[in-house]
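ARCHIVE CARD
Drawer: 12
Card no.: 0347
Subject: one protein chain, sequence and derived structure
Cross-reference: see card 0346
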Amino acid sequence: MIATHAIRLRPAVPADFDAVNAVIERAVMTWNLTARVKRLTLPSYRYTEHDLVHLHIVVAEDADRALLGVAAWEPATVRDLPTGKTELLLHGLYVDPAQQRAGVGSCLLDAARMAAREQGFDGLLVKARPEAERFFLARKLEPLPVRDPDHDYLHRFWSATPQHG
């Protein structure tokens, strides 16, 4: 494990995507899904250079520049928003399984929350895997009710943006 103060965040660049996607693959392989489902869904979680057009992608690295995790966010669509809110959607947050519980995910989540605040959004929306529910609850994100079980993501969380003092 690494010390939280040794984690450096920076915007992803095209040269990062092999390492980014390797972290995503290792993270996905820990999910509680069958091997076949993991294999079939994994391509939809990978990022490419084209994603930099629509997403803000941040990587976490250690002092040796080893990639530890990645997060991506974008403005949320109106359909996903709680009534009357504007928010940033955390598109993905992945931490290398060998680095989990070392503060990497918290640093990436804090960066997304800060981006929401700096961009004037009311908060941050997260659509999480069931395995990540405890992580988001522990960081004081509020679970959102499922309004339409046929269309809503089941594990959605909201983090209000702190107002400027």
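Annotation on reverse: The first helix runs from residue 17 to 28. The chain has one domain: 4-160.
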